[in-house]
Amino acid sequence: MPRFCLLLLLLCAQRVLAAEDREAFNHPLPDLSAGQQVQFFEGRTLMHQSWIVAPSQDTQHDGLGPLYNQLACSSCHPKNGRGRTPDRRDERLQSALLRLSLPGPAGAAPRPHPAYGEQLNEQGIPGVPGEGSVFIDWQMQSLSLDDGQRLTLRRPRLRIVALAYGPLQGALTSLRVGPTLIGMGLLDAVSDETLHAMAAEPKPDGVRGRVNQLRGEDGQLRLGRFGLKANAPNLRQQIANAMLGDLGISSSLHPQQNCRPAQRACRAAPTGGEPELSEAQLDALTRYLALLQVPPARAATPATRHGAQLFMRLGCALCHRPQLRSGAQALAPQLAGQDFAPYSDLLLHDMGESLADHRPDYEAGGRDWRTAPLWGIGRIKAINEHSQFLHDGRARDLQEAILWHGGEAQTAQRRYRALSAQDREALLDFLRSL
Amino acid sequence: MSAPLCHDRRRLLQAFGGAALAAVAPPRAQAQTPDNTLNVLTAYPDEVVTRFVAAFGAAYPQYRLNMVWRMPHEALPYLQAPDQNGIDVYWSASPRTFAQIKAAQGWQVLPETLRSLPPRIGGCQLSDPQGYFVATEMAAYGFALNRARLRQRQLQAPSDWPELCDARYAGLIAMPDPARVGFAPVMLDIVLQAYGWQRGWALWQEIAGNAQLIGRGGSFVSDSVGTQGEAAVGLSIDFFVASAMANGADLDFIYPRHSGVNPGQVAVTASTPHREAALAFVGFLLSETGQALLLHPDLRKLPVRPSVYRQAPRGSFNPYLAAQAGGLDYDSTRTQARLGLLAALCEPCLSQPHAPLQALWRRIHAGEARGLKLAAARRELCRMPIDEAQAAELAPREYARRLEAQSESAPRAIEAQWSAFAAAQREQVARLLSAAGA
């Protein structure tokens, strides 16, 4: 069956939801068992929990920091949706962060900066200085579409100030926005074989796609599925990474505090237990995110049907794949053996120089990014009250996001630029329907 | 007995102002952080905090907010530590904490310019008469409704608390567990004030018998009334439900004839060296801009600035108009001291024995439906182990420091007595019911 027919079938089969449902990313899968429902609600509470500076009587939720970015998971993933980067030059990062590392051997994990680690933690608990502050100056550039329409794009330029632990000399930086969290259980259940098969599939237009192979300290090789560069093999690991990196909460997967050797006050600060996040809490968060329902696409219209055809014809679907199948191993029985439509292949693609952060991460190079899933993308504006897209929020709408595509996506992007205004709008309508 | 309070007062006075203590107190936290940083202690959820941090940052980019999060029951000892742990501002919905720190001289008087908003609404004192703290928002109590489920059961929406005792509501009410959920003791107290200690507890016993209890850290009342649950009526503070509704939940919310307000307040610590920044933050919370943020669908708190209601969505509840019409009659300060005791009393009397209580009420309702006279069993089941005078005597002595939702490591001796009382009471009720053929 041709791909666009399959896509149309998927669209037609989906239920219609009210456009105003701002909780669309918060609903559980239907028909949870009683036990799953309990875990879902426990995980939801943890997702919104503001973590507490240790020591505290609330021993379940203490251990914030000593260095951290925000108080709660939901700070960077509001309503399980997308964070944003500041539009104003005097505005602080709230739901975005800055990754750091030093150049290291090819194919290896990022080499932490000796003074700051892998992430700039802007906040510190009382008595522990935050590491610094990041501000963004937007550099504007203009371009024209083939029909002559002129547009302006913006590119972030970082201004890092008030560094508390010395200069950041030689550091590689990467600005990241908190991504949408729906459908993580299905992505977790995509098998290694499926990832390898997709990578091996011949594709037109210079599109390739690679699996990020993560060699752990134990020497074991795992395939990346999560993170903007597919640098985490599974949902549980991704959550543990974020708990430590963003909140300073240790877990069985990251038992050490996030303090560098020279950060004396950080190392001397009290902890909230060893580890601070219990196995039960890590389980609850994992189940919660795994059991979140992906909201259905909006009802198809003639314009969105046409847009879906264009999506296929332009080659967008070569990477933003409308159909994946989960494997037999899954975090919940409902997630196993399912056909689903993430509009992603979870593979790394060279996205060109314009989007490059020049910060390698295992086998992901400085120009590589994992294909971002597009499910739910049309709901971001209503749920998160902005329309910023791409890893650093530089795109102010979906069209800008398309126009930033380069590298393996260059051909598709050129085809988009050559479309008539009506066809461009149809394609955007289709994306807004997801 | 006031010994604990006197002791606290000495500690606080030493901590806040004692010159002799200054030499031994640890260096202020901010000494190591940029001087434009304002440390704000709060228990507001992330949805509230992030929105206000962003908006304050836009209005006052010269200051940086460092939010320190603690539950209200931990705020008191935290603010009693030397130098008040470096906290400049306390911002939370915990009137008892504000009152206790005020008693220990832990706040600064706010300037008159920040005290221009209404100090009272209905029976509730919103702001401190001496100007040590002011209200920044309010929340009121009422019923979340699933009208479709009510229709299915051919039930009218209740207009006041006694109607919830109707046996037809059995299993259809979601009730926050007063021993565990922070906002619930005020809700209990609203009914106790409105109907008196004896009748009020009788109502709660019977309502609890009809209800499923919602604890902390799991599902919400709005889940139970919404698509995730089976309840038709949820007893709740309004913003949880109003926010769910504003975000698309097919629910309704009504305020019963007897309701009340719980204010969120703000104060500046006595020890802050950042008075200017602290007052800027307080001013922002009270400003038209800051107050309008409360109307956001994710927050839906009630502004204290009356003019902001002009911006509220059509049909929004206006507590000032409701108070003028005689609603919101709960006096939040008159019985404030007993809230901790109420939470403690609920544990052995309502929460822990909830399942057997439900069973007894089912028997009573079923028996009465068959025409049995069960007044003696009812009377027995509604008795509480202490009366209002004993509660008034006991609360400041034993429960002055226990805030709502605070769990304690072990029950006190008196709570063991209450537990024994409740167990004996249930046995007696069971005997009475059996004797009556119920």
TrEMBL record, chain A:
Domain of life of the source: Bacteria
InterPro entries: Cyt_c-like_dom, Cyt_c-like_dom_sf, Cytochrome_c_Peroxidase/MauG, DHOR
Pfam families with a match to the protein in the record: DHOR
UniProt domain Cytochrome c: residue ranges: 302-434
Single annotated GO MF: heme binding
Secretion signal span: 1-18
Alphabetical UniProt keywords: Heme, Iron, Metal-binding, Signal
UniProt protein name: CxxC motif-containing protein, DUF1111 family
Taxonomic placement: Bacteria, Pseudomonadati, Pseudomonadota, Gammaproteobacteria, Nevskiales
UniProtKB/TrEMBL annotation, chain B:
PROSITE patterns, alphabetized: TAT (PS51318)
Record's keyword annotation contains Chaperone: no
Pfam families recorded: SBP_bac_6 (PF13343)
UniProtKB keywords: Signal
Signal peptide residue numbers: none
InterPro entries: TAT_signal
PANTHER family linked to this entry: SLL0237 PROTEIN (PTHR30006:SF24), THIAMINE-BINDING PERIPLASMIC PROTEIN-RELATED (PTHR30006)
Protein name stated in the entry: ABC-type Fe3+ transport system, substrate-binding protein
UniProt source species: Solimonas aquatica
